[in-house]
Amino acid sequence: MKKIGVFGTGTVGKTIASKLIALGYEVKMGARSADNEKAAAWVKSSGDKASQGTFTDAAAFGDIVFNCTKGDISQDVIKLAAGNLEGKILIDISNPLDFSNGMPPTLIPALCNSNSLGEALQELLPGTHVVKTLNIVTSDVMVDAARCGGEATMLMAGNNAAAKKEVEAILRQFGWSDIIDLGNIRHARSTEMMLPVWLSVYLLNNNAFFGFKIVRP
């Protein structure tokens, strides 16, 4: 079973990392400092398959790496770890959200419409297979698709077909059975721009446990 690195110590990072541990993977959680307190607490509660280190350490450890950092810092994080991501799969689940004016956040202008965070990370990592997925639901639904109350659709985008097959296998372990491969990483624009819709529904119902369903013949 492949080793996995997880960038980020927040709710999303911990949720993803904990699910991967439950599935039997060895997981290293990465942060700016090797002794990050949130990462240490997660390791303590997660057993002997869990470890922690810097972003660079997590990138070196993982055969596959999840980017669970906030979208406004993801590019800086990737620059720190880029040397250890060559030839690997980076599953990018972050969104380019700007919270500077409070809730609801807006999309960062330079990373929407004619660009996306997924594309920006792929440009920084020409030798890495960036796959955009899971960014259209809340973290608990990411790792347990049934939590949305029905059979929702998960979308993904990336340039490398073999990498997407590996990512699809993990998505299925997370309970996703209806998966659509949109094509190359440019389609990260579409999924990232679904976030305003997600936020509108969330704020209306004060409930994050939902997903999107693509109905087709």
Automatic annotation (TrEMBL):
Record flagged with keyword Flavoprotein: no
Q: Does the keyword Oxidoreductase apply?
A: yes
- What organism is the protein native to? Chitinophaga hostae
**A family per Pfam:** F420_oxidored
Record InterPro entries = NAD(P)-bd_dom_sf, P5C_Rdtase_cat_N, STEAP_metalloreductase
Query: Where does the Pyrroline-5-carboxylate reductase catalytic N-terminal domain lie?
Result: 3-96
Top-level taxon: Bacteria
According to the record, the signal peptide region is: none
User: Do you know which Gene3D superfamilies this protein is assigned to?
Assistant: NAD(P)-binding Rossmann-like Domain
Q: What is this protein called?
A: NAD(P)-binding domain-containing protein
The record's keywords, sorted A to Z, are: Oxidoreductase
